[in-house]
Amino acid sequence: MLRDNPGPVRTVGAHDGLTAKLVQQAGFDAVWSSSFEISASHGLPDASLVTMSQYLAASEAMDLSVDIPVIADCDTGFGGPLNAAYTVQRYERAGIAAICIEDKLFPKINSFADTSQDLLPTEEFVLKIKAGKEAQIDPDFLLIARTEALIAGMEVSEALDRASAYVAAGADAVLVHSKSKRPDEVLDFASRWESEVPLVAVPTTYHVVDEDTLYNAGFRVVIYANHGLRAAVRGVQETLGELRRAGRAQAVQERIAPMHEVFALQGMPAQYREGR
Ligand code: SPV
Ligand code: MG
Predict the structure, then answer these.
(1) Which of 29, 46, 73, 103 is labelled catalytic?
(2) Catalytic site includes residue 212
(3) Are residues 85 and 47 in the same domain?
(4) Boundaries of domain holding 175
(5) Which one of 36, 160, 230, 235 has the fewest beta carbons within 10 angstroms of its own beta carbon?
(6) Global pTM value
(7) What is the mean pLDDT of the segment spanning 36-45?
(8) Which listed ligand is nearest to 32 at the C-alpha?
(9) Which region among 22-36, 86-100, 178-192, 260-274 has the lowest average model confidence (pLDDT)?
């Protein structure tokens, strides 16, 4: 998945089978099974409240719904090295293409939360990566190591040191996360990255950057982590607001997807699809 793509692997966040299908339908290369989206879909903050089994079930539902690969956001690996190993076993057995684990402390909180972030010491996160890679059976399964050093306010040099240690421990790719409004710090990271191991970018706050710039800098995967969910929240709010104001369903008829389109997304057999 990471090496043969002609450009970046363009990936979008999802939280269930339907949203994964929308990612595939829009022509993207991969689905990001997002902890933020899955937590939000439960009406919960992205703060290690949803359990590993719930995340896995959501990732499986996504994977069963699409032909493109699913990259599962596994937060901190759900605990220590034993948990990371068990996570690899379970996700690999479920047929998920790749998982991503990050170097925050368990329980973690979303990277954009208005709070300070504490990281695990490098040596301890290395133990999780090693345990995960030792548990891996399928040679094609990928373990992405994510450093939150920049999120925690550390220097690019600390992010590079951590990422290098994670690669030495066996990580197949490195996600360097940033909450900067500009792409400068991730581009600086990439320009100083000496390894062949591919880099992953999540341009949520530094959304001014384009894919070509990221690709030319060395990023092989670009993840639009939550754009489908945020589009849905805005779309549902506006439609329901209009429905409440108007007092009849006709007022929103033109702004909602017809039933037959949802039938098609559901895989409803064609003879049953005559919708309204
Ligand atoms: C997610 O989508 O859950 C991520 C990306 O991990 S972020 O929300 O930016 O932490
Ligand atoms: Mg997450």
Answers:
(1) 46
(2) no
(3) yes
(4) 9-225
(5) 235
(6) 0.97
(7) 98
(8) 1
(9) 260-274
